[in-house]
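**Fold tokens**
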Amino acid sequence: MEKVAIVGCGGSGKSYLARALGKILDAPVTHLDAAFYDDEWNPLPMEKFTELQRELVAQPRWVIDGNYNSTLQTRLEACDTVVLMDVSTIAALWGIFSRQLRHGAGHKGNGVHNRIHWGVIQYVATYRRKMRPRVMAKIEEFASGRADVVLLANRRQARRWLKTVAAEHR
């Protein structure tokens, strides 16, 4: 496990998993929200964002967390492991609100980027129905059969999986 793409709904625990996995694997971690948005929440132009990801995936080792379906193919074609944080809608909604309560709004480093507005709530509330099928189709098309695909249905499963990975990488 050298190149890991972590995808899933906002609030699913992608950033936590990425930080923990990066430590276990001793691999650099990139949180795509931190790469895409500046401190004023201005997005990077898409062509620059795509080029940045091409540079990131060209590295020998990495953990990258973030959905960004428009550029997902870049990560899926380069990874050896895909982790889908496949949590319930309720768990994801709880995740975005509890993160906001714990950390407040804004950029906090370590992958914590909080900005709750109606668009974010709507995206999280409809992710499993609207976005998940598109993500699954891309995983099937660009990673299945070539990369290990790990589906984690909740945070407990994620912690257990991390323990297994840590035991394998001692």
Summary: The longest strand covers residues 3-8. The radius of gyration is 15 Å. The beta strands are 3-8, 29-31, 62-65, 81-85, 106-109, 112-114, 148-152.
